[in-house]
Amino acid sequence: MSSDFSDPGDSSNRVVCEVYWYIAAMSAQRHTLTALLAAPPALRSDIVRLAYTSLRHSPLGLHRSIATGLRERAHQHPLYKLRNRRAFHTIHRRAAHLDIPPPAPHPAPPAPPSATTTTPPSPPRPRAARLLFTTLLLTTTFLASFAMAALPAAETINGFVSPPTDAETLTLYHPSTPLATEINTHLTSHPLAIRLRAQPGWTESRPHLKIPPAMRPHNLTGGTLLGEGKIAVPPLTFQDATAELPELVQLSYLGEALCGHPGIIHGGLLATLLDEGLARACFPALPNKVGVTASLKIDYRVPCPAGSYVVLRAQTTKVEGRKAWVKGWIEVLGEDGGEGVKVVEAEALFIEPRGAKSMARVYSTQ
C-alpha cells in the first residue's frame, strides 16, 4: 500500500487500518504477558531481562514506535486539520457568546514617596513676549561685542581728535627703571632746562606722548626708538611757538643700542632727529600747523659718542605761504647750560600739503 494519499477517503481508510494494526499488536502483547506470567520464575526473569534490554524485542519500544508513527500520520491527515480549525472557531464563538471580559491589566506599582514637592509647570509665555525677549538679548550681545572690539579703535581716534595738551604730556611719562629715573631727573633739572622753562612765551612738553598709545608701536621716534639702551626717555622739548619765526630746543639721551660703529651714534639716527626737530620748529608758522620735508641737507662735524645727553636747536629762518626754511644742529649737552660741541648741522625746507587742513588737529603743536 502507498504511503501518499491524494483522496481524503483513502487517507481515512489508511488511518483506520493502522489503528486496527496497533490494537492487534497490543493484543498480542497482552497474550504474551499472560504466558510470561505463567512461566517458571527463573525462565520468566531471563525472558523479561532479554526483552527489556533489547529495543528490537522490547514491548515498550514497540509500543512507543507504533504510537509515535500513528500520531505523526494523524496530524498530517486533512480531517485532523479540519477538526482543529473547527474546534478553534467553536471556542471563540462560545467565548463571545458568554461575553467573557478580557483579563484586566496588572496595576502599576505605586510611585515611591518623593522628598520634595513638585511645582506645577508655569504657563507658557506669549509668543510676542518670547520674540521681544530674544530680540533684546541678541541686540544687547551684539552691541556689547561691538563695543569691546571697537574700544581700542575708539581710544586711538579720540587720541588723534583730542590730543593731550603740552602741560598734560609732562604728566604722562613715568620712568620704569632706576636708569630711566636718573636720566629723566638729569634732563628736567639741568640748568638749560631751568632757564628755558623760565623764559616768557616758551612752552615745555613731551610731543611724542601726544601720539595715542595704540599707535606708538608703529611710530619710529615715538615708539620703536624709545626704550632702554635707545632714546631712554621721551625727549623734553621747549618751544617759542608764538614768535613770527619760531624756535625749538630739545633735550635727549642717546643710548648704546643706537650705534653704527661701536660707541658712535648712527648718523642716520641723527638725521632722523634733525628732520623731526626742524619740522616741529616751523610748524607753528605754517597756515595749518603741519608740513612735510621737501629737502634736508646735513653736514656731519664730529662723531657723537653713545650714552650722551644731546641738545637739538632749531631756528625758522623764513616763511612764505605754505613754505618754511629752517636751520639747526645737534650738540653734546654742555655743563651748566653752556653750549657743547656741535656734532651735526642741517638746513631744511618744509611745505604744507594741500590737504593739511584735515590734518591740523592730528599734528597740532598747540
UniProtKB/TrEMBL annotation:
Stored PANTHER family: THIOESTERASE FAMILY PROTEIN (AFU_ORTHOLOGUE AFUA_1G10800) (PTHR47260:SF7), UPF0644 PROTEIN PB2B4.06 (PTHR47260)
All copies of domain Thioesterase, residue ranges: 263-324
Query: InterPro entries under this entry?
Result: HotDog_dom_sf, PTE-AB_protein, Thioestr_dom
- Biased composition of type Pro residues is found at 100-113
Q: Which region ranges are annotated with the description Disordered?
A: 98-127
Its domain of life? Answer: Eukaryota
| Name the record gives this protein | Thioesterase domain-containing protein
